[in-house]
Amino acid sequence: MMPAIYLEAIVLTLGVLLVLMEAFSNSEEKTPVAWLGIVGLTFVFILTFFTANDLSASPYSAFYHADFRAIFFKRFALLTTIVVLVLSIEYRGVVQKYVFGSRPQAGLGEFYALPVFTCAGLMWMASAVDFIMIFVSLELVTISFYILVAYMRRNAGSLEAGVKYLILSALSTGFFVYGITWIYGVTGQTSLEKIGAILLGLKVSHGPLLFGFMLVLTGLGFKIACAPFQIWVPDVYQGAPTPVTAFLSVGSKAAGFIVLMRVAEVFLPVPWINHKAVTILVALAALSLLYGNLAAMPQHNLKRLMAYSSIAHAGYILIAVACIGSRYANIAVSFYLAGYLLMTLLTFLVMAAVANQAGGDDIVHFNGLGKRSPYLAFAMLAAMASLAGIPLTVGFFGKFLIFYVAYEKGQFLLMGIGVLTVAAGFYYYFKVVRAMYWKEPADDTPVRTSPLTGATIAALAFCIFFLGVYPAPVIRALEGPPSDNPRLLAR
Amino acid sequence: MDESSLPWIILLAPLVSVAVIVFLTQGSRTISAGVSILAVLVSFVASCLVFHAPDPAGVNQITWLDFPALHVPIGVTIDQLSKTMLIVVTGIGALIHIYSAGYMKGDDGESRYFAGLSLFMFSMLGIVLANNFVMMFIFWELVGVSSYVLIGHWFFRDAPPAAANKAFITNRIGDFGFMLGILMLWLATKSVVFTEIEKSLGVSKFENLNLTAATLLIFCGTIGKSAQFPLHVWLPDAMEGPTPVSALIHAATMVAAGVYMLARVFFLVQASPDAQWVIAFIGTITSLMAASMAIQQNDIKRILAYSTLSQLGYMVMAIGMLSKEAAMFHLFTHAFFKALLFLGAGAVIYGMHHEQDIWKMGGLGKKMPLTCATFAVGTLALIGCPGFSGHFSKEMILAAALSGSKWTFAAALATAFLTSFYMVRLFVVVFLGEPKTDAAKHGHDAPPVMALPLVILAIPSFLAGYGFFISHFVPLHGTEAPGFVSLFAFLAFASGAVMAVLLYRGKKEDPIHIGLLANKYYFDEIYAALIRWTQELLARQCGRFDRWVLDGLVRLLSGGTYAAGFALRSFQVGNLQAYAFLFGAGIVAFLWYVVSK
To answer: Which of A356, A348, A244, A250 is closest to A305 using CA atoms?
Structure first.
């Protein structure tokens, strides 16, 4: 058993190694950099199963927790990054086209290396229990995203997206830090645990603390892309290179949610915060659900549609966040995110493969995919069905848990909005399915994918169905060891 | 290997076969057939091992769904009931798989056929092994799906797809009741596991549970799957499927699943006297009605199909009379001789180049001696000739009928008489006399791969009523039929057989015509009219309502939604300053709410 913090150290070393490899290698071929990244991250993923999740022993436990939930999200970050690297290899042609260079593949090496640094940031964030630690890891993630979003520097769309993301993200970070300073000013602490202890001692409403908490909430709201802090999402998602979009929509969102959960678990139990904070969270969830689902309906571009869908999914997860205190809230959030990872990455993989050949990622480019490449079309069908939440896919159990938690906490308004917007979701997700199976293809040539991409697609699709039929393994992993879990002890 | 993993091997081997055929070997018919046969043999061997092992003590299950108030395991039940059923399903299944390799040779869809057959084995074994209602319901539906696929195997002809639809939809009607029954029991007892429900029903009376209604709703599942009156109409049509399918699914195993399920939840039947009465009544009606319809059919497979209906009615009636042993005993013997009869019919059809009308056969006894001999064994077993397996089980059924009232006994006797009559008629017309067509003159025995299962099945068809089989497979607890039951049974058998021989020997066409029976009491016509005047009328009205009222509302709503989406999109102006402003405005709004009182 090794300490969990080694994992991040290894990932970071791997990142440095990749950059060095790209800088000092004479080879024009940069794909080995990505391969090494994939292999290295897979190795770290295996290591996570041999990691001690012991809380007390480490000297840095004041700001770094390696509980089972942190380990779960570290695996989550690793898996996401691995798939993003696969996606980057598939997408390299487009990046190459829009990057200057003396040699054909110049600049691709960094494109493969940067996600590894982001991954390290995400993994730290999963364990962070101190505001300073949270902030530092958040910035490690965000700064590498600044570069990645604007990576295709000869492409106006990518540049525009980069600038928008930079400025709006900086703005939100500003609010986030400002909120932290207010909280620190009142409590004199940055550690979540100690802040929690002080908060429970305060019996009457404390304006400045509330103010600080709300500012932190807005900063996190930006990361998870919920309304009304979602305004950047469609433009940035559409402009960024597809692998980066996938990374943003999965990795960045998940990291935002784990921090949100950790912060909310400290603040929400306090009665005078709870009342207002839950109202705010309910409002955020409702707005995101309505905005994301309604605005997605008229979209014709799949990437943009996925942007709105990402807002909508943030809304569903926020339902569970608003229900913190229910025994299943945590599990619901994490399980939903796990399912979201599978279906979103699968969508982006298929999208990249199709866009490579068809030259665009509008829904019309998917016309007749069912005839051209039945396996790809079926994988996409699995992803869309799961995003819509159809039984036998993982998306169904995600929504089931969310609605169950809402039911337990009596959040009937959110349940109602949630159910109605799921219906709206069917409409726009099945626009893609209709295009694939009911429209005639523009040309009949099958879409070619590399074996690696094909295998990844198959694996993701399999997981969607497997967890859709048998979700118990993930739920059990999320429940953690029995000692952490009052429900299991009660049996 | 651990013994507790054996049931899982039984269950999963056919599923693996489905996956292999669908994903890998679709191109090669021979390999697909081989994979499927291998899988069923693995299941059969594992079943034999399970059969010999003592009953396991603990609960063998994994948790599938675990939510508060809904705890669904996937687990297996191993007891005398399921052990016997495992042997029947995998044993007959294996023989029919082998037979199919000959029967389906050269069919373009052979790979698809064997994938379907393996899927059926998986689903059927799931029903047999299930230890809870949810699991049983899932496999129940899967059996429906695989039956649909196999009935409609020749989907390019007209009749099979229609028959497949009819079977599936009719079954769904019954299954809806089944599901409601499961939900009722779950709501009351908070459990779906058979043993837990049984225990909690024994401990306390549930105020909120109408046990009779729940039992009858669950019985609806049997009505559909075992083709009982009034949902019996799908089974004769299902004969459009390939003959081995008819033998395996629509005679020996799947249709018996309804009876098996009732035996599995026998504690429910025992606890509700009103339900017993209904079950016995439905069974009696079905057996008598189906037997009477069979005497006027001319299609060799349809005659056997009505006979299956009638025998299933016997079993259901026995369950209603609380004689689970008689029902299971008859299920056991019937599975062998009915599979044998169907495979024999298949050999006849095969040798006659797909001719199924018995009046175009005749004299086949000389051309197909082996088929004729084995068919004779099956026939004698079915009509309860003393010494054959069917005789023993039928006697038990008649004894069970006697325990009800003299009317049920009379109906059961009449059914036995009719059974004897139509089966001897079939045998006389097909195998004796002069050939009536050229095809019949040139008939020939089936190839060895098809003949072998016939011979093997003939053995248990003859012997399944004797000591060894009874003591191992269907332990009977000292239920001895009174002597006069045997006498009546023999009279019914003998008079039916003699009458049929006298009437049909040497005849070129049917000497009697009873329109009512030939047209199956006009059930199909009545249902068609019923549907036209109820469902379709309602559907038309709903259609009008939908078009003029709902559609308008929906259009209004979707138009509004769409417009709202469009309006929301207009926030997305693409201007960075505007974005930053909106972002700031959002924060201000939130802070205002928080800081204000």
So the answer is: A348
* Nearest alpha carbon to residue A68 among A490, A491, A488: A488
Tell me whether A59 touches chain B (CB under 8 Å).
no
| Cβ-Cβ contacts under 8 Å, A171 against chain B | 580, 583-584
Interface of B with A in 47-86 (CB under 8 A): 62-67
- B394, two tokens: 């039928």
Say if the ipTM goes beyond 0.95: no
Q: Which of residues 533-562 of B touch A (CB under 8 A)?
A: 561-562
In angstroms, how far apart are the furthest CA atoms of chain B? 103
Shortest alpha-carbon distance between residue A432 and chain B (Å): 17
Half-sphere exposure of B527 (CA within 13 A, CB side): 13
Those residues whose C-beta lies under 8 Å from the C-beta of residue A217, and which sit 6 or more positions away, are A179, A260, A263, A277, A280, B590
Q: Which helix (H) or strand (E) holds B73?
A: strand B70-76
- φ, ψ for residue B64, nearest 5 deg: -100, -65
For A214, nearest residue in chain B (alpha carbons): B591
- Interface residue B568 vs chain A (CB under 8 A): yes
Do A395 and A385 contact (CB within 8 A), yes or no? yes
The DSSP output letter for B239 is: G
Quote the minimal CA–CA distance from B64 to chain A in Å.
6
Measure A158 CA to nearest chain B CA, in Å. 13
The answer to whether B57 and B14 are in contact (CB under 8 A) is no
* Closest-approach residue (CA) in chain B for A397: B65
Interface test with B, best of A169, A173, A232 (most B CBs within 10 A): A232
Provide, as residue numbers in chain A, all residues whose Cβ is less than 8 Å from the Cβ of B589. 228
Q: Do A231 and B562 touch (CB under 8 A)?
A: no
Cβ distance B572 to A231 less than 8 Å, yes or no, reads yes
The verdict on a CB contact (< 8 Å) between A298 and B595 is no
* B571 contacts chain A (CB < 8 A): yes
Tokens of residue B177, six digits: 């009741």
Cβ atoms of B300 and B345 closer than 8 Å: yes
How far is Cα B448 from Cα B432, in angstroms, rounded to an integer?
23
Q: Which residue of B has its CA nearest to A238?
A: B574
Write out chain A residues lying below 8 Å of B561, CB-based. Answer: 294, 297, 424
CB contact under 8 A, A218 and B568: no
In degrees to the nearest 10, what's the CA dihedral of B111, B113, B119, B122?
A: -100
Of B564, B571, B586, the CB nearest to A229: B586
SS (H, E, C) B417-468: HHHHHHHHHHHHHHHCCCCCCHHHHCCCCCCHHHHHHHHHHHHHHHHCCCHH
Contacts of B556 (CB under 8 A, 6+ apart): none
| Residue A2 CA, distance from chain mean position | 27
Closest CA to B148 of B185, B175, B179, B108: B175
Mean pLDDT of each 10-residue bin along chain B, 597 residues long = 79 89 81 89 90 76 76 85 89 89 83 90 92 91 91 87 88 90 87 85 72 89 88 85 85 87 89 88 90 86 90 91 87 90 88 81 81 89 85 85 84 89 87 78 79 87 77 67 79 86 77 73 76 77 76 71 70 75 84 76
Coil, helix or strand at residue B245: helix
Q: Does A177 touch chain B (CB under 8 A)?
A: no
